Structure formats: C-alpha cells, structure tokens
Amino acid sequence: MLDLLEQRFRANAAACALIAGDARFTYADLLSAISHWQARFARSGIVAGSVVLLKGDFTLDAIGALFALMRIGAITILLAPSSFEKEAEFADTGRAQFVVDTLSGGIQTFSGDGVHPLYDQLRAGGDAGIILFSSGSAGASKGTVHNASHLLEKFRPKGKNLRTLAFLLFDHIAGLDTLLYSLANTSTLVLAQVRTPDEVCRLIALHRVQVLPTAPSFLNLLLLAGAAERHDLSSLEIVTYGSEMMAQSTLDRCAAALPNVRLIQKYGTSETGAFPTQSRSSTSTWLKLGGEGFEWRVRDGKFEARTRSTMLGYLNEPSPFTEDGFFMTGDRVEVDGEYVRFLGRDSDMINVGGQKVFPAEVEALISQMPEVAEVAVYGEPHAILGAAVVAKIWPAGEISAADLRKSVRAHLTGQVEPYKIPQKLILVDQPLTSSRFKTIRRSGS
C-alpha cells in the first residue's frame, strides 16, 4: 500500500499537500522529506523492527518521518505535544530503542530492548507497526499496537479530494485517519498550529477549507465564542465529529449556525480505527455503521466490532477480544433497525444504589440550560448509595452556586428519574475540555 501511495504522490507531485502558516508544500516536497528521513534513519541504525518514539505534530518533517519509518518497517510510537509530559512513560511502556524529535531534528538512542510478543508478530510478517496511547484519564495509558499495513489498506479505494483541516491530534486515531485519508486522495491538508475557535475559523476562511473533523466539545466552544459569526465559513461543506457523546442541544445549535454544512457523526476507537458511518440526519445522533471489512454486533447492550484495521492487542493490558475476534468496546448502545445510538462507556457509568446513570444523558439535558456553558457529570463514592452523581459546571454568565443548583434541579425534575439528578454541584471558571477535546469527567480535575 505504501508503494501505491507514493505512486499517487509522484503522479501529483506539483499538487499542494500541506499548508502550514504561510508555507505550502507539494507532494514532491513530501516525497523529499520521506527520502531525507530514510537516509537519516539508515545512518542512525534504525532498521526494520526498530521501536521508535516519534515526537511531533502535523508538520512536513513529522509526516515525512512517519512515512519513512513505515517504509523501512519500523514500529513507531506516536507522541504529540499535548502528551509530551508522558514521553518517559510511553517510551518505557513501549520499550523504545530510539527517540526521534522532529521539532528539534534530534535522534537519540533509548534504553528499551524493543521486546514484546506483539512486536514479534509484526517482525515475523515483515510489517511496520503504529502504537497509539490513550490519554490515561481513567488510569494508566493503554498502548494499542497496530499493523500499519492494516491501517493503510482501507485507503486503497480512492475517495473524495476535499481540502481538510488537520484539527484532531497527530497521536490520536482520528487525527491519523484524517492525515492518511487526505494524503491517499492527494488532497490538501491545512495544518492548525493553534486550536482555538477563532483560529480554526480563520484558517477555514483563509484557505477555503471544505472539511472540519472535530469533537463535540470543540463545536460547543466554537458556538459559545461566536466564532462562526466573525468568519466566512461558506467553503465548509462537512463537519465530522466523534470521540465523545454529542449533546442533542449542541448538535441542534450547530445545525442552526451552519445550515449549509453536513454534520456527520463518526465512530471509532483507538483499538479499531474509524468505521464508515452514515448519520440519519444532520440533527440525529443515530448512526448507520459498516462497510466492506467492518462488522459489528450488540451483546448484552454493549457494542462489539471486528475490522481488518483492529489493533493486534495492548502492550500493557489483557486481550479485549472475544473468542471469535470481536473487540469488546465497552460502549452501551440502543439499536433501531440498521441504526445504533451510543449511550456511553461502561467505565463512565455511575451506579447509584444499584441504578445505572450514564453521564452523557444527564450532561445532554443540563447543557440545554442557557445558564450553562459546559458541564461534566461523574460519580463520587457515597457511604450509603455506593456512588453519588456530581455535576461540574462552567456557567455561561454570573450566577451563584445556590441559584444554579435550584435551576438544575428544576430543569431535570420530570425529565429524568430522581436518582439521576446530581446531588452535588461544583462551579468552575474555565472550560471542561481536555487537550484532546474531550469532556473532563475526573473528580477533582
């Protein structure tokens, strides 16, 4: 597949591959960057099967280095700036033998031995590997080991040539999917150095971006900031969103603010990659999933998936696969014919005296309130009930905790069962969104 991609690059050598600030790079520039890094890796002793931690962001150098590592058959641990503080953890867990810093241009040896049974599988097949780590918001970061050729294979059929903004992160499966889809179709990828609502909208207007892949939390921030009203977004055709639950109120507001844009919900995990999806409508959270090479099923209310792009396994966790090879996502879903709707992760669920509470359900209702800018719901230990529901709220304006508590209770009464109404409310003075643009639900965060 790498040969096919490079053929496409050569056939479109003069086309614009990347836009970074005032700089534009062609596919010929990308091929040169790949060759440059291959030569450097050869001189540094990085060969097929070497385990390399690659530090970088969406830049010509980092993308060239990634393709060069795949070309020589190395096993690459991706690390973006938002996770740089976890470099030692990821390198140790991944048993890295080299660290390549594309921001400084340095290549250093590391103390890892590069030994792991999953690495043996890759080396035995002569395949390159990609390792992605989770954020670790619920504990230690999990390292997912992917066969790079399996991730690339789904991009063999040609797709649409659409100018896309690289919003999602370099070391996130959705960010990697965005990169590979854009390059596989010899499109132009606009690189965002700062991911604020106004800067993202400025780039869309300046470069006539057609596709914005993003997250519900960011769309909410964009609407709150009024950024869409200050910039010309007429070029925008598609907004895809995923990685967390979308509140219906946010989706409705986004559809009203961007009436000529298709809003498409995406589904994927670090373990499976992204599924082909089709939203029932721009204002619906129901999805049709599937396509060639993608299978899914629901058992005991939980979503399971089997795809060719599914990871080989975890570096530091037990196997999450069923005997017949389905990945147990832990996502609770509802099914309506061909469509599914995701309710939330089992790991996020709050058990209140034996009753189940999905944070996303409560968050979706509270987010409808004009007094609320952002909300995160989670559970805290309770001596009698086992767990109590807590709501952390970033208010949309000046309001006391007592008044907001009364408003939240009044708003939820009659819409949800009493045990789902937060027993504790915490006001914060900043957004409740992580560097990966996911709602932060951790207690005390």
Radius of gyration: 22 Å
For this structure, what is the CATH class of the domain at 2-152? Alpha Beta
Q: In order across it, which strands form the biggest sheet?
A: 6-5-3-4-7-8-20
Helix content: 25-40%
CA-CA gap between termini: 43 Å
Structural class: alpha/beta
Mean pLDDT: 92
DSSP summary, beta strand count: 27
| Major sheet size, sense and barrel closure | 7 strands, mixed
Write a structural description.
With 445 residues, this protein is of the alpha/beta class. Among the domains are: 2-152, Rossmann fold, CATH 3.40.50; 349-427, GMP Synthetase, Chain A, domain 3 (2-Layer Sandwich). 29% of the residues lie in helices and 29% in strands. The chain contains 13 helices and 27 strands. It has helices spanning 2-11, 27-44, 60-72, 87-94, 117-125, 148-153, 173-184, 197-207, 216-225, 227-230, 248-257, 359-366, 401-412, and strands at 16-20, 23-26, 51-55, 75-79, 98-101, 106-109, 129-133, 143-147, 164-166, 189-191, 211-214, 238-241, 262-265, 268-269, 273-274, 277-279, 287-289, 294-299, 302-307, 313-314, 327-336, 339-345, 350-352, 355-357, 372-382, 386-395, 424-427. Strands 6-5-3-4-7-8-20 form a 7-stranded mixed sheet, sandwiched between helices. A 6-stranded antiparallel sheet has the order 16-17-22-21-19-18, covered by helices on one side. Helix 7 links the parallel strand 9 (164-166) and strand 10 (189-191). The relative contact order is 0.09.
Quick gist of this model?
Helices cover 29% and strands 29% of the residues. With 445 residues, it is an alpha/beta fold. It has a seven-stranded mixed beta sheet, with helices on both faces. Strands 16-17-22-21-19-18 form a six-stranded antiparallel beta sheet, covered by helices on one side.
